Amino acid sequence: MSIRRLFDIARHVHAKFPKEDLFVTKYDGEWKKTSTQQYLNLGNKISRGLLELGIMPGDKIAVITTATRTEWAIMDFGILQIGAISVPVYPTISPEDYVYIFNNAEVKYCFVSDKALLEKVHVAKPHVPSLQGVFTFDRIEGAAHWQEVLDLGEDKARQNEVEDIANTIQPEDLATIIYTSGTTGKPKGVMLTHHNIVSNVLASDHRIPREKGLNYQDVRVLSFLPICHIFERMLFYLFQLNGFSIYFAESIEKMGDNIKEVKPHYMSVVPRLIEKVYDKIYDKGTSAGGLKSKIFLWALGVNKAKKSIGKPSGLKEIIADKLVFSKWREGLGGNIITLVSGSAALSARLNNMFQNAGIPILEGYGLTETSPVISVNSFDRMKVGTVGHPLDNLDVKIQPDGEITVKGPSVFKGYFKNDEMTAETFTEDGYFKTGDIGHIDDEGFLHITDRKKEMFKTSGGKYIAPQVIENMAKASKFIEQIMVVGDGEKMPTALVQPDFNFAKSWAERKEYKIGNTPQEMANSPELRARIEKEIDYLNTKLGSWEQIKKFELTPEVWSIETGLLTPTLKLKRKAIKEYFINLYNRMYGH
Fold this sequence. Notes:
Blueprint: H1 6-16, E1 23-27, E2 30-34, H2 36-52, E3 60-64, H3 70-80, E4 85-88, H4 95-105, E5 107-112, H5 115-124, E6 133-136, E7 144-145, H6 147-152, H7 159-168, E8 174-180, E9 188-193, H8 194-205, E10 220-223, H9 230-241, E11 245-248, H10 255-262, E12 266-269, H11 271-287, H12 290-305, H13 315-331, E13 338-341, H14 348-356, E14 361-366, E15 373-376, E16 389-390, E17 395-398, E18 403-407, E19 414-415, H15 419-424, E20 432-440, E21 446-451, E22 456-457, E23 463-464, H16 466-473, E24 479-485, E25 493-498, H17 500-510, H18 518-522, H19 525-539, E26 550-553, H20 573-579, H21 581-588
Parallel strand pairs: 1-11, 3-4, 3-5, 5-6, 6-7, 10-11, 10-12, 12-13, 13-14, 25-26
Antiparallel strand pairs: 1-2, 8-9, 9-19, 14-15, 15-16, 17-18, 18-20, 20-21, 22-23, 24-25
Helix pairs in contact: 1-2, 2-3, 4-5, 8-9, 12-13
GO molecular function: ATP binding; long-chain fatty acid-CoA ligase activity
Domain AMP-dependent synthetase/ligase: 15-416
Protein name: Long-chain fatty acid--CoA ligase
C-alpha cells in the first residue's frame, strides 16, 4: 500500500507484518504485548471517542508521558487519522512552559501518563482557556482515565466518519507541532506535515542495516529516548514500517535491566549515554585488579591500534575480542546490529572504540525543523568523525560563511503563529538555515564543526568554537560537563562540572579526603589540581588563542531539573552562565 500519511504506516504494518508484539510496555513488573490488530482497533476507538468529544480536523491534542509507552502510539494513530494535530510535550518542562505551549497551540485536550504530570498540568489548566479536559493513562483517583475515551468510541457507528475524514487528509496537511526545548527564550512550535516526516522515514530507511536471515518477527527495538523528540519519533515510525517489535524502556535508570530482558537488535542513543556506558565499562575493567585489569587495559590498547573498522583479523585482535569485547556485546544483550546516535556530536575516539568492539554506531545529524535527519552514516558508506552522507532526497548547501543549509521534502512548514521567525530562518533562494557550521569533504561526507550562534569572539578578535573544545574535554573521566565561555573577554575560560561519582572513587583509591557532597568536592584542592592536569593536556591540542586559561568547578550537577540542560541533554548556555555568574565573574575579575 502507498504510504503518504503517518497513519498509513499503522495500516501498512498490519497488512504486511501482522504480529502479536508490535508494541511492548512493562506494567506492574510484567511486559504486556499489543498486536498489530489491537493497535488498529484501539486507535480506531480513540478516533471515534475523540469525535464524540467534539474534536474536529485541525484541533490540537497534547500527549505527555514520563516514559514512552504503548498508549502514546495508540493516541498518535487515533489523533492523526481524524485530522487532529498532535502536540507532544516534554515531561520535564515547567508548568509555566506548559501554560505557554498549551495557549500558543490552543490545546483542547491533554493526555498524561502519571500523577506527577497530572499535577503539573493541573497547575497550568486554570490559565489555559482552550483546555477542556485532561485524561491519564495510569489509574489515578479523581482523574479522568483514557479508558473513558476508548469507551466513548466503543460503538462502531462512527467508523465510516473516521474513514471519510482519513480519506480527505492530504500529505501536505499539518500532522504535529513540536515545541523545541530551546537553549534560550520561549519554545518555538515547529509545524511538521505528514509528508515532512513520511519522506524522512522513507529516505532514511535504507540507511538502517538489516541482518541477513533474520526474520522481521524476531527483530526487537528498545526505545528509551523521549518520543516527543523528533529523532526518536521518526525512528518509531521507521521501525514500524519494517514490522520490528518496539519495546518501551521503563526509564534510563532501568535501562540495564531492560536491555538484559529484551536483548534488542536496535537502539537509538545520545552521545552522553555512550559516554556513560563506556565510563561504567572502564571503571569495572580497571577496578577488577590483578590480571583481569591488565588484560582489560591490554585489550583497549589493541582496540586503539586497530587500523580499520571491521571484524578482528590478527591473533591479538581475536584474543582481545574473545576475552574483553565479547562481554561488551553481551552487556548490550548480545544481539545489537547497530546503535543509532543523534542529538549531539559523538567523539570520534569513542565511536572508533565501539566500532572496533563489534558494536557499530551510526551517527547522524538533523534538527526538529528537518523531520529530523539531514545526513547519517550507513554500513556501506561510513566515516567516523562525520555525520555521513546527506539523504538522497535533500539538497545540502554550505553557505559562504560555513553555515549548513538544506532544501527538500522533510524541511518544516514553518513556526506556528510566527511568520517573521519563519522568514528569517530561510535564505532568499529557499534553503533552511540550520545554524550549524560545517563542510562536505571530497567523499561527500558532512562534517559539523560548531553551532553558528555558539561561536564567539574574544576581545582580541579571535573566534572560538566552544563545542569542539567541549567534546574534546569530555573525553576525560573527570569531566562530566564543561562549558567554554569568553564572549568579548580577553581569553577563553571554562565552567566545569566534575564527574562526582568518578572523582569519589578516584579519591578513595588515592586516599584523598575530598568530601562527599558535590559542594565539598568542587572545593577540594586535590580534585582541582587533578582536573587542572586534564585542562593542561587539552590545551596541548588547541591553538594558543583557544586554550582555556582559567576554569572553575561548579558545586552541583547540571541537570534538566535545574534548568541547565535541555531535555535532550544539550547545554542551556545562557542559563548556565547566569546560574554560575559568581564563578564566571571570579574567572574574569569582574
